[in-house]
């Protein structure tokens, strides 16, 4: 027996380009197709199926289509809600959607035990910090007693940050989890983590990460996928399944080497599948020549982020952790209400302003506005 553990699909998240919206849906579809092809017995979604609690119609249709495909192939599915797709008020229409899913999927979020053959499944929707987390830990104690008495596999499904997986987003420690489960299917962290084995837990713990880079994450060369978990024996054995993603390149180079680096990247590009590119350029002294090189690259790619870095601060910008970039971008999207505007502010305008190049910053704003006007006319 085996199952798929999929998480953080974020269907319906806003993208500045239609192709990126399609990438999100394609990643979800791939995960379902592979699960069907590999004949898994059931599928677990550990939260944030949708990007928001009021998803667009396209997102709902895509989800229903894929859940129906699972059902048509005799595959059950189970889900919990994350911090993104959990309704904040009872009047939200999404309650009706989740309650109407019973024919094609099963909501595990209340902590009540559910059984698939001889497999015990328990899930909890996302719990926020403070008293909510304390009540979750009390629920852990109750369900652990049930798991201890169960003779078969025992799977717990959560959407919470663990300090061991992400020091900036942790709400719990692994040691806070119930001890008697044979697999810990967790969502919330967008980077793959695990499978990890801890002596105080009854089985491996794993975050598959998101199935696509979200709109609030920096572009980076990272693999995306999910886990297929074999529970044919006494031990749960997770296997990583990588998805076929849009290519992405991280370029770190000096301004003097930029031309050669861009030539190198262009030579690798399949024009039918244009990549995403992250540019970090040091030793910037001539903005106009940089612009020309970037324009040349833009003809061959779908989207990019750009950091222009002066000599004095290059080590700071190049060595800072990706999680800081992600958090800055996420906050900017929240404030500006636009992924495109946030990318421009953080990745292009901020580095120039930090270095005190006011004239160059003004030119960047003018150029960006001209580009915006052209796109609006098309």
TrEMBL record:
Domain of life, per lineage: Archaea
Pfam families per UniProt: Metallophos
GO MF: exonuclease activity
CDD domains assigned to the protein according to its UniProt record, in alphabetical order: MPP_Mre11_N
Alphabetical keyword list: Exonuclease, Hydrolase, Nuclease
SUPFAM superfamilies named among the record's database cross-references: Metallo-dependent phosphatases
Calcineurin-like phosphoesterase domain ranges (all copies): 1-191
Full protein name: DNA repair exonuclease
Organism per entry: Marine Group I thaumarchaeote
Taxonomy of the source species: Archaea, Nitrososphaerota, Marine Group I
